[in-house]
Structures are given as structure tokens and as C-alpha cells.
Specification:
Two copies of one chain form a homodimer. Chain A contains 17 helices and 20 strands. By secondary structure, chain A is α/β, with parallel strands linked by helices. Chain A has two domains: 322 residues, Alpha/Beta hydrolase fold, catalytic domain (Rossmann fold); 206 residues, Rossmann fold (3-Layer(aba) Sandwich). In chain A, helix 1 packs across helix 2, helix 3 runs antiparallel to helix 4 and helix 10 runs parallel beside helix 13.
Chain lengths: 648, 648
């Protein structure tokens, strides 16, 4: 057997000892539950980090996942590790020098907040299985009352991953007036059937453990330790990606780790799981596991785009949605469903599916912090303080059953006293991206001349979707006008991060796969600049643009330009030039070869209307009016569907 | 609750009643086991289908997976369903009108063959946990003895999926002289760490069930029913793909099925799993589950390409390896590892990763039978009867510890008496593909003139790899010569099926992802005809070709052809012609635009040697010797690395 050094889990295994710094508070009123029943007395354990600003406008609520608790991060160097030390702390992505972070333990949990192991006032004994079914909505209701009793009426942001993400989504949809920004990581509108299936097996293992004693095992020598450990082992497998398991265990698969466990010790992965299961039993209550996993399984914002869109209609926050490519428990497509529903409501949202081998746990790991952590940092820095905009500021209409105003926050004995904020590191909203470095799709090395013309073509107050927006240079220029809505689409995650740093909304999407996130005629203008020649499905992309936008602006290089023609005609060589045409035939990103005339023929054959054509000789900085197909190296087209646009 | 009509599992849930048609036989000698110990008495239960031919050369051994048994298929209309009725039977892919099929229950199982529930002769009680650890090698040893006692010394083929595939691989590597063909479905050289992890949790559930009684539960009122059911539930999740679970359970996820089970009944997927678990307990022995899953977890042909290649060196069979895209328990990359190791040994192998939503269970389902079933059918029809070729017929050298000759088959009382074969449906080896229908990569509508020239360029006895081989037209023509080794690479699964029907070996591979399956300088010639213009990574593909082949033959369309130049120069339109150039600029599969001169420049700049160039005007059926870049519409190049090839 080899040493057990691999046993640093992302999900920090902590002792069951009471944590320092945990505060607690009793809710002023009994709590009526969504699925029926009332909890007469609810205690909430929570921890806070940083200082509340005088305006009480710097509060970030962090929501933990199923096995987490209020201990998000270390309070000082000597403190126990927190479950999100990589993200939360002084100078970190959620910068506690600047923000006031609060994290309560969940309703139904076992780390200080009322749950199945708490005393049932009716019997004087622990609730056990008499603890009622609670929902994510109930958990959020408890958090809201806690904040209210602490004198906090507005959240700058709510952030969470997995089950923590479910809470964040619930905050934004149920209490839209209270939340400015939502950071939803590795989460979903509801669990997949596969994820529910794993939870069901885990619960069956707990409930059929002979030491379960109908849930009243608290005065017994043993609880359902084996069942809880089995549930934890199953969970652990689902939190890791197959590739990360391979990396951890393949090399010495037959060499079990030297750990003192009762479980099978034949394979290295087996001893790892056995150890995780055994440690979990020391710090977690089986009834809480059943309660929380059931709440997660019951969470359901909707299974169709229509239902999901309706669910997000009340939301008025700004959104950052992040998934991880190797997460198979909460697959990225589920985050995409969330994003599509938000986009359908015109909500300001940025989405990125971060390349990662970390599986569902990736949001807890340091590996991709340079992307997801920096996105969180940039997103928070760009959130405007102050009141949440009124309902209807974007398309959202608050439903009657939802609270649309900041909740009442009567000063009370518990009320937190704000103190002057420490001088935090305030990063300017658009630091470092004044002008975009010319990328492979820039035709001009020094200056994107086409941008000047495109900006002129778009009237103020128009809504604009920029496809292949890069780091947001064009959108940032348009923002200086008075545009209604500016959204970018980009594939490269670093460019997306640059957009977030500029305070722009950008959705990660592969153009060749369509613009499924966007509704019909959702934008006044859709832009595709110097990119069509690098697109495989030209017709599909153009038709999608025309579906989504009333007018489309497409700028293209012209292979009919005289010098390019000559290269083929006279030299017998594939045309090549500067800018986007600077590559060799065998390594160019450009895979479509066409002329201005070809593009016009295409529009004619597909019954597309060319509203405007601007042909340019960019070398001479001249617009070409005659013989464009010969004398222009570039053209900008404004096209639309042949039937008159509903709004011009 | 809704009706339980969804409960037809692919893994047919059968009663525990003894099956009709099961025969059994006691091995003549005690069985010494690989991991130590001896089983003094081994009984084998088996079933047979079809008739043994007079030459005893039509035997197909079918190997079952962990929860299967000898009942592969119905013996008659009134019989119970078999687990592979979709594949095995009269007129089916494994055609029992033609082949003699035998399927024994596994050593360690609980359906008639000796296992933990069998009587231990030393104690007169069931073995229980005293049953020794058995390996896949032990299972195969039992099968081999069974066949020997039945008078069968040669297998035409061995076929199996999952754990059944592990047995097939073991047959081919340990007993290469006894197997002509191997059909390995949804299998792997060893389990992933993730798959082992699920097995470990299942075994922990069984072994920690308080009714396990140290494995001696046979005289107790209850066995470890909950533990076994939990293990089965976990297994079931891993057999299904996430998409198939979504399809089965998403629509009514909160509506549990109306089934009488002790397990949680809150979600439809939960009742499904509970039902599967409860039914499994009725027909399966927990000790057998532990024994068989451990044998599977211990199976290990190697974790690196080097070790795997060595493991396959003795093999002399022809191979059909099939994986399924949505199988995450035995991921397709593992089949690819198998295939790469076979290719490294010059083994004749066809590989296809069948597009499927069926998950690991796909090989048991009717959905993709038109692909995988027909591949099995075509593969078997093209297997030559008679003795397995001697060692070294391809690169394999049999290791000393392996049996390399057909095993002894002394006539005995058990010996099967062959009967005249029924007139089977004999499909001609190359039915239906006399000449390939021109596909999108055919330059000529009627006849591939370039093939004539390519065939002339390749000397007899050369080994040839044809990239983008389509349905195998060129390879079939080359086969009429006396070539050493002919292999195709193709992406389209129907074209691969056509190749298999022609008796050709073809590997599914995306050219843009490289030729990782093939070793350096493995072929005399590598061919890429009329495809380079449709490849994104031109340089990568050409360098891979030159790594794998001593000489490469590349045929290309010439965009420098005078009429094409004129289209751009005079008409200002993207060039377009017939054949491979018949598409519009916006929908052509061709994404690389270059001339003969461009290609020659490329070769020069990369220090590639052009050994031969044939330029053709295919409209005039003429070879062009002057001004090829102007007057030829096509060219064929023979290129090689600039250092002289080791063998010319």
C-alpha cells in the first residue's frame, strides 16, 4: 500500500468539531413550508467575511452545496480551510476587502442551522424523519429572513454552484427586487434523470441501512453509517470527471491506499472512495443528506424552453452563468438551457462553458481560476451599486406572487452595523482592453476600418448582436451611443473574459451550430464582420442571422479584387493578401472563397434583400462605387428578409 | 402512478426458474485457478443453437456479460426470450441456419455453472465466500475444456460484449490457434477507474448488508437482497446513456411507476431502478455478483500502447471491434486502444464506433442492428473456414506460454455428432458493391479514372493504406493484385459496412485527428484520392501520411485549370465545375483552394520529395506534359520524405 497523499479532496474533509466564527440567529417568526407544515423555531448558523459598507450595498450571499456549510473561507491564517478559499478572501475573485460576504448553513443541514438532527419542540427529541420535506424555496426564505433581521435589504450578488446555484436561481426569480447580480456555477434548472437516479440509490442505501432505525438513530450506538458512506461514495464518483479519475488512479490502479477503512481495499480508487465515505460519516448527518438531496431532486424551474422562459420572466438581475466542459452531473447543456431562457427574456447575461477536466467539482478547484475566477471578479466589479432597476427595465414583468421590492429590513437587535469600508482594490471597468489586438479575423493590422462604417450604419437606440465579437471592441464603441441592448457571441473563453472585464454581455456559442439562444427578430441589427469566409455552414449562419435580426450587417473580403484575380489567373497560385487573407492555402482559417458578385448572387437566389452595400478599397481608404467586384477588397452588406421588416 | 409498461429492460428480466434446453457437463479434470487454488469439480451449463457442420468448422462461441447466462436466444417460438434474440437466430446476424452457436454460463455464475452457490465438495455446503477468486482467464479455460470434451477444436468465431468481450479478447490472445474471428463489442482492455469505482460501491453494498452473513446466507431466510439490489441499481444507471434516461424519464419525472417495491417511490427513474433491483435479486446470487464483478475489475491487458501491443502479439484472428458513441461505461476510446494495439501487430481488423443513444446496452438493443448487426453478419460470412493461419502469417509471434495449436479434441462420450448442415443463406462476399456510386468526393460521374492510374502506380506485394476509402472500390481493385496488406480508413459507418461486406479491413477515423492507429512507416503506400481539398489540417494530414507510409499518393483537383481561372478572372465568380467541384461556394465540402503549382511549392517548402507527378485533363482523357498547371484539371502526386525511403 502506498501513502495516502492523494486524499486531499476538493471537498475539504473537515472534522466535526464546532467551527469558530460561526454566528447564529433565531428567526423571529415560525417558518411555513412550501410542501406543507411549519417549523416553529428556526435557528440559522452563518459566517461573514469583510465589512458591510455604510450604504449596505456591498453584500454578496454565497450559497453552499450539499455537503458544504457556512465556512466558505478561512477567517485568518490559523483558521480551518474553507470550502471556497480559492475564490473568497482578501484580494481574491470575491474580494472581501471590498465586499461583505455572508454564507448561512442550509435549512435541513447539520452544521448549525435547523435540520433533522435539531430538537423537535413538540417532542423534545431530534426531528429525525419527522423533519418535514423542505425545498430550495424554503432554504431561500430562511436566508431572506436572516438577512432582513441583520438589516440587509439588498444583495449586490448571490453566488453558488450546484445546489448553491439552485438557491441563486431561486433568489433571482422569486425575489427579483433584492438581487443585482447572479453568479450561477455548474448548476441547472433541474437535475437530469441520471443525477436523480444516483441520488435515489444513495437514499435507498441510507433508508435501508438496518441502523437507520426509522431515522431515530441519534441515541443509538450507530447511525446508518454504511448507507451514508455508500451514498457519499456514489456522490463522489459523480463529482469527478472520468479523465480526472484516470489521472488520479490509473497508474497504480491495483495498489490500494493505506487507509483504515472497513470497506473493500483492492483498488486505489476503491480505497479513495472508502476513505471519503468513512470521513463523511464523521461530519454529516444521514437524515440531512436525505433531506438536502431530496430538495435538490425536487427543484424544477421547468423542462421546456417555454416553461423555463416563464420562470425567468420576473428576474431583473445581471447574470454570469458558468459551466465546465467535463461536468457530467450538471452537464453544460443545462446551463445553456438557463442562458437561453434568460436571453429569451432580454436579461443581461454572460455565459461561458469553461474548458476543464475537473468535472462537477471544477468550481471548487484552483485549476481554472484564471478563467472562472477572473470572470467572477470582473463581473462583480462591473455590477452597479444601488437599487435593482424596476421591473420592466428589461423585458421582465414580476409575477404577482413574487416579491418585487427590496424586503423590509427593520433595525433590530441583530442588525449589523456598517463600518467604513477598507480601501479595496478597485479595478476600472474596462482596464486593459482599450483597443483590441488584431486577431486572425482582423483584416487591417492597425485599425478596423470596417468598424467605423458599421458603427455609422447602426442608428442609436437599436439593439445589436455582434457575432464573433472577440474582446468586445466593436460593442464597446457602440456602447458610447445610446443603444438599447448590446450582446456579443464569442467562442474563445479568454476573449469572453475580456468582454466581461469591459462590462459587456457575451454568450459563448459556436456559430456553425446556430443561434439557438436567440429568439426570432430579437435584435434590430446582427453583425458578422470578416468572419463569413471562415464559416463552414454559410447558408445556415446567414439564415440564423436573418431569423434573429431585423437587419444583418455582413462584412466580407472580396476574392474578386483585381490583384487576387491576377494571382490565380497570371501566376496560377491561390490568392493571398494581408489581414484576414494573409495565410497560406493550407493553413488559412478561411474556408470559403467568394467574391462580392458571388455574395450578391447568393442573396438573389435566396430572396434576401440587400438594403445597402458599401464597397471599400482599404489600401487606398476609398469607397468604390463602380466595378466594386474588381476594385474593392472588402464589402459591407446590410441585408434583410425580402418581406419588409416589421420595424425598420 | 402510471402503468409499468416502460419496464421492458434491454437486459431481459427473467424468472429464476430453470431454463429448458440447458445442457450441462462436468469437466474431466479439476481446474487449477490463476490466482491460486483448485476447483476439484466444475460443472458447466450451456446451450447450443444450429447444427455442427461435418467439418466441425462452423462453431461460434458466444460469451455473456455479467448478468447474462447461457440462454442467448429463444430455441423456439414458445421459449423464454434470450438476452441476444436480436442478433442470434435463424436468418439473423449470427445465423443459426448456418452456424453452430454455443453459449456456456460463466464460471462463478449462478445459472448452472459452478459458482459460489454450488456445493463445496470439502464441506458439503455452498462455497459462499470460500469460492476462490476467478479471472477471465479461468472462465475461458473452462469454456475451452467444455469445447474440447464436446469434440470441438476450432472456433470459427468468438463473440461477446462487455465482460463477454473480455472473454473474446482472452480467447484470441491466449489461444490464438483456436480462433479464426473475434467479434468484440462495447468492450475494453481493462475497466476505467470510474467503472471500477461503481463496482466497488456495489460490492461494498453487498458485503456490508447485515444479511450477508459472511457469504453463508443460503440457509438464512434472507440474503443480502438490499445490497445486491443497490449494486444492480448502480449498474443499471451505468448501462444507460444520459440521453436514453432523459427520453425514458424526463417527461414524467415526478410520476413514479406503480410497482410493488420496498425502495423509494418518488421519481419515475427511482421506481424503474427499484424494480430492476428487486427483480434482479430473484434471479441472481449476490456472491456471484461479487465474484464476476471482481473478475471484470481485475481484467487487464495493459494500460499503455506498448503493453497492449505486446498483449495482442500472439493473436492471429481476424477482428471486428465495435463500440457505441454513447457508451460511457466502456468508452469508445478504449475500443480504439484495442484497435491501435491490433493495428500495431498488423492484425486484420475492422473498427466502427456506431452512432447510438443506447449507452453500454446498445449492443443488446435492436436500434442500431442495421449497422452493428449487419457488420457482424458480413464479418462472419467473409471469415474463411479451415485452420487458423500459422503464427507469423501476420506479424504475431505466439508466446511460449500460449497454446498456438488447436486444442486436443479426443472423441468422448460427450462428443457432439455433426449433422449435415441445413442449407443456409450464403451471401456472396462482395454482394451489391460491384462499383461504387459516385459520392461527393468522386471527381468523375461515371468512372474514377484516377483509380486506374493509382492502381498502375502501386507495385504488387506492396502494403496499402487507403484514406477516405469509401465503400472500398479502390481497395477491392487492388485486392485483385497480390498485395500484402490492404487497409482502409473511413468515417461513414454505412461505407464501413460496405467494406466489411466486401471482406475488407477498415478503421473508422477522422483524418483531421491524425492517423494515431498506425505506426511509423507501416505501409508501403498511403493513398489520399480527391480528398485533400476537403481536409482542414492539410499539413497535419500530409505529415501523418508520410509518417505512416514510405510513399504517398495524393490526387488533387487543380484550381489552376484554365477554365477555372477564367471564372474568377473574367466572370469574377468563385470557380466551379463538375465532379468534386460541382458545388456552390457556400455549400461545397471543399475548403482548400489550391493549384498544382501551389501543391508543388508546398512540397518544396516542407522538403518533401515529389517522386512522380501525373497531370490529367480528364475531360479529354489525356495526360498533360506541358503547362500542367493550366491544362490539367487533376493531378496525381507520388511523394515521400526527402531522405531516401528505407525500402523503395
Amino acid at each position: 500500500m502506498v501513502s495516502s497523499t492523494i486524499f486531499e479532496s476538493s471537498d475539504a474533509v473537515r472534522s466535526a468539531k464546532p467551527l469558530r466564527y460561526v454566528q447564529s440567529l433565531q428567526l423571529a417568526e415560525p417558518l411555513a413550508l412550501e410542501k406543507g407544515g411549519t417549523l416553529p423555531r428556526v435557528t440559522v448558523a452563518y459566517e461573514t467575511y469583510g465589512r458591510l459598507s455604510a450604504a449596505r450595498d456591498n453584500v454578496i450571499l454565497v450559497c453552499h452545496a450539499i455537503s458544504g456549510d457556512s465556512h466558505v473561507a478561512k477567517h485568518d491564517a490559523a483558521d480551518d480551510p474553507g470550502w471556497w478559499d480559492v475564490v473568497v478572501g482578501p484580494g481574491k475573485a470575491i474580494n472581501t476587502d471590498r465586499f461583505f460576504v455572508i454564507c448561512p448553513n442550509l435549512l435541513g443541514g447539520c452544521r448549525g442551522t435547523t435540520g433533522p438532527c435539531s430538537e423537535n419542540p413538540e417532542t423534545g427529541k431530534p426531528y429525525g424523519r419527522d423533519f418535514p420535506t423542505v425545498t430550495i424555496g424554503d432554504m431561500v426564505a430562511v436566508q431572506r429572513r436572516l438577512l432582513s433581521q441583520l438589516g440587509i435589504s439588498q444583495l449586490l450578488a448571490v453566488a453558488g454552484g450546484s445546489l448553491g446555484g439552485h438557491q441563486a436561481l431561486t433568489w433571482a426569480t422569486r425575489h427579483p427586487g433584492s438581487v443585482r447580480g447572479v453568479i450561477a456555477l455548474a448548476t441547472s434548472p433541474r437535475l437530469t434523470s441520471q443525477a436523480i437516479a444516483f441520488d435515489v440509490v444513495g437514499r435507498n442505501a441510507i433508508l435501508h441501512d438496518p441502523h437507520f432505525h426509522g431515522g431515530q438513530y441519534y441515541d443509538q450506538p450507530h447511525g446508518p453509517d454504511v448507507g451514508l458512506a455508500l451514498a457519499r461514495m456514489i456522490g463522489h464518483i459523480t463529482y469527478l470527471s472520468p479523465e480526472s479519475m484516470q489521472e488520479k488512479f490509473e497508474a497504480d490502479r491495483l495498489h490500494p491506499r493505506d487507509v483504515a477503512i472497513e470497506f473493500e481495499k483492492k483498488f486505489s480508487v476503491g480505497t479513495y472512495l472508502g476513505y471519503q465515505g468513512a470521513k463523511f460519516v464523521e461530519r454529516f448527518d444521514a437524515n440531512s443528506y436525505v433531506t438536502l438531496s431530496l430538495a435538490m431532486d425536487l427543484f424544477d424551474l421547468g423542462g421546456t424552453p417555454e416553461v423555463l422562459s416563464a420562470a425567468f420572466r420576473p428576474a431583473r438581475a445581471r447574470w454570469l452563468v458558468i459551466s465546465f466542459t467535463s461536468d457530467w452531473l450538471f452537464p453544460p447543456d443545462q446551463s445553456r438551457d438557463l442562458v437561453n431562457a434568460l436571453v429569451a427574456n432580454n436579461a443581461p447575461v454572460t455565459y461561458c462553458n469553461v474548458q476543464s477536466a475537473g468535472g462537477h467539482d471544477a468550481f471548487l478547484l484552483p485549476d481554472e481560476l484564471d478563467i472562472y475566477g477572473e470572470m467572477i471578479r470582473a463581473f462583480l466589479v462591473n455590477l452597479p451599486a444601488g437599487q435593482v432597476p424596476a421591473a420592466g427595465a428589461h423585458a421582465g414583468e414580476a409575477a404577482a406572487s413574487h416579491s418585487t421590492t427590496p424586503f423590509e429590513a427593520p433595525p433590530s437587535a441583530n442588525s449589523l452595523q456598517p463600518v467604513p469600508a477598507a480601501p479595496g482594490i478597485v479595478q476600472p471597468a474596462s482596464a486593459g482592453f482599450a483597443e483590441e489586438h488584431p486577431g486572425p479575423t482582423s483584416i487591417f493590422h492597425q485599425h478596423r476600418l470596417d468598424y467605423d462604417r458599421i458603427v455609422e450604419l447602426i442608428p442609436p437606440e437599436a439593439s445589436v448582436l455582434d457575432l464573433g465579437c472577440g474582446s468586445g471592441t466593436l460593442l464597446a464603441r457602440l456602447r458610447q451611443g445610446n443603444h438599447r441592448r448590446l450582446v456579443g457571441v464569442e467562442l474563445d473563453e479568454r476573449k469572453i473574459l475580456n468582454c466581461v472585464s469591459r462590462g459587456l454581455d457575451v454568450i459563448q456559442e459556436d456559430l456553425n451550430k446556430g443561434l439557438g439562444a436567440f429568439g426570432t427578430q430579437e435584435f434590430d441589427y446582427v453583425i458578422l464582420s470578416q468572419t463569413l469566409q471562415a464559416v463552414f455552414d454559410v447558408e445556415g449562419v446567414l439564415l440564423e442571422m436573418l431569423r434573429v435580426g431585423r437587419r444583418c450587417i455582413v462584412s466580407i473580403p472580396n476574392f474578386g479584387y483585381r490583384p487576387l484575380r491576377r494571382m490565380l489567373a497570371d501566376d496560377g497560385r491561390a490568392p493571398k493578401s494581408g489581414g484576414v487573407l494573409r495565410y497560406e492555402w493550407y493553413n488559412t482559417p478561411n474556408i470559403r472563397f467568394f467574391t462580392i458578385a458571388d455574395f450578391e448572387d447568393f442573396c438573389l437566389s435566396k430572396s434576401l434583400r440587400v438594403d445597402r452595400r458599401i464597397a471599400l478599397d482599404t489600401e487606398k481608404h476609398a469607397e468604390i462605387f463602380e466595378e466594386a467586384n474588381l476594385d474593392a477588397d472588402m464589402a459591407i452588406f446590410v441585408i434583410s428578409q425580402n418581406q419588409p421588416a416589421t420595424r425598420s
